[in-house]
Write a structure and sequence with these properties.
With 176 residues, the protein is an all-beta fold. Helices cover 3% and strands 40% of the residues. A seven-stranded mixed beta sheet has the order 3-6-7-1-2-5-4, with no helix packed on it. A hairpin with a 6-residue loop joins strand 6 and strand 7. The protein is globular, with a radius of gyration of 19 Å.
């Protein structure tokens, strides 16, 4: 250990910079391709009901295509959002999973996505009515790697890591 310290082995390694992505352009990767389409504030969203009067919906709309050979039930792992205060949930903002994941075509709940069948999805959070209205949101798209688990030696999708990041303007589409 002392020898590695002499050659910089104890220095904090810098995290690699996350490559940029672009709104409405496919970000290709494993186990999904992601096209972030838009971010919106909404006052109503189909049959979903806000927990508290005066709150609003914050939604990210994205086209998702599973590139893995099997169906995926980890859709909530696809991205994280930052720069939006007051999202409701019991976890810190940077790891807060969407409260609802719905298919845009019919507002049905999405639990699984199938390979090679792109779907436009709404990732939805309730935002406190007291929180500032966001004008932009930072979205981090994640990847996973298909490899043998060091614990079980079974092939699994592991290493949930950022693969791209983009800034998206937030459209205020609330009804007056």
């Amino acid at each position: 250990m002392a020898a590695s310290g002499l050659f910089g082995g104890l220095e904090v390694a810098e995290k690699p910079e996350v490559p940029p992505a672009v709104v409405n352009e496919v970000n290709r990767g494993e186990p999904w391709n992601v096209t972030v389409v838009r971010a919106r504030l909404l006052s109503e969203l189909g049959d979903l009901r806000l927990e508290k009067e005066g709150d609003r919906w914050f939604a990210i709309v994205a086209d998702i295509e599973v590139t893995a050979p099997e169906s995926r039930n980890d859709v909530s792992d696809i991205f994280s959002v930052s720069g939006v205060e007051g999202l409701l949930g019991d976890k810190p903002q940077h790891i807060l999973k969407p409260q609802h994941i719905v298919a845009v075509r019919d507002a049905s709940r999405v639990q699984y996505l199938n390979p090679n069948m792109p779907e436009r999805i709404g990732f939805v959070w309730e935002q406190s009515g007291n929180a500032p209205i966001p004008t932009n949101v930072t979205i981090t798209i994640y990847k996973k790697t298909y490899r043998a688990s060091s614990l079980t030696d079974h092939m699994e999708w592991l290493d949930h890591e950022p693969r791209a990041q983009l800034e998206v303007p937030v459209e205020d589409k609330r009804s007056p």
